[in-house]
Amino acid sequence: MDTTQELAAFLRTRRERLDPDDFGLPARRRSRRTPGLRREEVAELAGVSTDYVVRLEQGRGLRPSADVVEALSRALRLAPDERAYLFDLARHRPRNADKPATTVAPPLARLVADLSPLPAMLLNHRYDILAWNDEIARLLLDFDTLPPSQRNSMWLCLMHPETREFYVDRERVVREGIAHLRAAWAAHPEDQALTDLIAEFTAGDEEFARLWAEGDVRVNGRGRKVMRHPEVGVVAVDFETLMPLQDPNLRLVIYRAADEESQAALDRLCPPS
């Protein structure tokens, strides 16, 4: 994975998805055979030369300044997560000097347990599951039965035979997970374990390879998931993701039942004490 080539591909795909009609371009300039804006139009909107945009999109090793990255973000109308991703690729966001978290401080582990009866778990930026309570283990999988290398929520979704078809809207869940991993990879280029994990998924799962190639970038902190549980049937949960101030590389994920039927299912699965 080469950040220079990824920056080039990212700029191309974002340029090509734009609708020229949204920019009020003169009619004489709108006759085109290729999708999206032309390079010279992006260059004009960003206030840079067309040759510079060409060289960026061809991956010639240029490193745009922070001002140019900001101008390109505006010209391409990037969403906030995409803008952050572009800054990461250009190496203009501050780096966290700490190594990726692989353990959890005891107070955080106790917090996860104390969140019962709400299912909860702690993840790092590459989706490694570092701590969990009994409720989420009963809802998803008994993580104690897995070797540490398999305690990764994306690995379980893609590779584990019991959880591959666990989510009703599987493609959306995988797509959102991939969009997060892409942002995490750009923010943590030094994390070889994450790079190796993405390579493993790309080589071993056609769906992952196809969706990864689409280049989506998004950090999704809340949403809904609908699951097919083998014991209690369909369960819909709303999730919220929080970042501990003392450990910003960790993610605390908390589930809540999305409706009365799902709450009843969770109560059968984890009877209130």
TrEMBL record:
SMART domains named in the record: HTH_XRE
PROSITE patterns: HTH_CROC1
Lineage: Bacteria, Bacillati, Actinomycetota, Actinomycetes, Streptosporangiales
Database matches in InterPro entries: Cro/C1-type_HTH, Lambda_DNA-bd_dom_sf, MLTR_LBD
Coiled coil: none
Domain of life: Bacteria
Protein name: Helix-turn-helix domain-containing protein
Ranges of residues in domain HTH cro/C1-type: 36-83
Pfam families referenced in this protein's UniProt entry, alphabetically: HTH_31, MLTR_LBD
Alphabetical list of SUPFAM superfamilies matching this protein: lambda repressor-like DNA-binding domains
CDD domains per record: HTH_XRE (cd00093)
